[in-house]
């Protein structure tokens, strides 16, 4: 039996993040890289619809206290999200080595 499906809600900054990632890959690597990375991002984030708690509680204590979770997408990119009721709200999709927590505080 499959768990109930949550609704994935990409907030505007997360949508822009994915577009930025696609633009970067197009410029640096090429169109096949764009298809691969965006497909991987969509597939892994899509799993949150069925398993909204699969990402870890965010390691930053302030973000964790606010209910943020962190999902590793690739060795480079992470998804920052929160779960409210039946919805999974995608806040950011970023390079995990950047100082992205400041974008959420």
Element order: H for helix, E for strand: EHHEHEEEH
Quick one: CATH class?
Alpha Beta
Domain count: the total is: 1
Secondary-structure class: alpha+beta
Oligomer: single chain
Descriptive report:
The chain is of the alpha+beta class and 105 residues long. It has one domain: RelE-like (YaeB-like fold), CATH 3.30.2310. Helices cover 40% and strands 26% of the residues. The chain has 4 helices and 5 strands. The chain has a 5-stranded mixed beta sheet. Helix 1 runs antiparallel to helix 2.
Write the layout of secondary structure elements.
Elements (H helix, E strand, L loop, with lengths): L6 E4 L1 H17 L2 H16 L9 E2 L3 H5 L3 E4 L4 E8 L2 E9 L5 H4 L1
Parallel strand pairs: 1-5
Antiparallel strand pairs: 2-3, 3-4, 4-5
Task: Describe what is shown at a glance.
The chain has helices at 12-28, 31-46, 61-65, 101-104; strands at 7-10, 56-57, 69-72, 77-84, 87-95.
Any descriptors?
globular, alpha+beta, 5-stranded mixed beta sheet, 4 helices, 105 residues, YaeB-like fold, 26% strand
